[in-house]
Amino acid sequence: MFDMTAAIHGISLPDNRLEEDIRHKIDFKTKPLGSLGMMEELAIKMALIQGKLCPEINRKSMLVFAGDHGIASEGVSAFPSEVTPQMVLNFLHGGAAINVLCRHYQIDMSVVDMGVNYDFEDHEGLINGKIRKGTRNFLKENAMTPEEARSAVEKGMEIFNGQKAMPDITGVGEMGIGNSTSAAAIISAATGLPPEEITGRGTGLDDRQLKNKIEIIKQALMLRKPGKNDGMDILQKVGGFEIAGIAGAVLAASAAKVPVVLDGLISTAGGLIAFLIKPEVRGYIFSGHKSVEPGQKAALEMMNLRPVVDLNLRLGEGTGAAVTISIIQASCKILCEMSSFDDAGVTNKD
Question: Which residue, 309, 268, 262, 305, is CA-closest to 290?
Fold first, then answer.
């Protein structure tokens, strides 16, 4: 039987004993000091995670977690809930943006049904992790029972560990109408910042709809009273099953010492839940892209992370994570393949 507690207990920060040697290696490449900017820091973090001077990325995976949300019945999304299963089917048929990017970057992609309100037929690209057909409306009651919340996190861990081969890096994406409301509630609860500062327009709300969304989150947090530092309590009261699956995948990846790339607001909320459960996971997390949603910044500041790219993305699905995986892979190649001043016979400035 899977032991979630033991797996989480085993997570520790990457060993930093090689850091001086890694920095020396990249500092003496044929370039001005620090001139490759963030790519240098990405390579250093990858080397520390893998515990070697020459980090490699060969197998890349993308897990796209999907789930429906009871809170969607409060009019917090510009799209109806039936879009969730429709988009999952689009993923399975290879027609979404994340499919295109994963094909382009040669990333193995799987879709995980954590709680979609639909019965899918078997498909080789679909993993059945369904806990329930959607969370409950957290304005009226807790989104999940404690047992459901734990089962969802455990399922996310099992799904990460159950991939055909252990990846060298994995991305996490999502799909779920109403999930930006859940993510905003999670981040507001965890950071203590008011919903007005956290909540964005999601799928494209107008001013009136945004005001309604903020008021609903305010009321729900007052009614549910999630514990600020208790990731599982926050998840149970205002979370989503796909967010729980992402949290589980982050925990399992960290336990296996595999780097994991978050996408935008929703996957960052999942990463934040994992961080609240076990803060050491931040040593294995990369933030894929800067979201236009304001809540992401607050969550990343809490985890002391900064996004790799800013492409004005707001799609989700794992799209920003896919782009960032390619940049991290390129950064590793710089560390491993670029000549040093001595190797190339180039005179250093000193």
Answer: 309
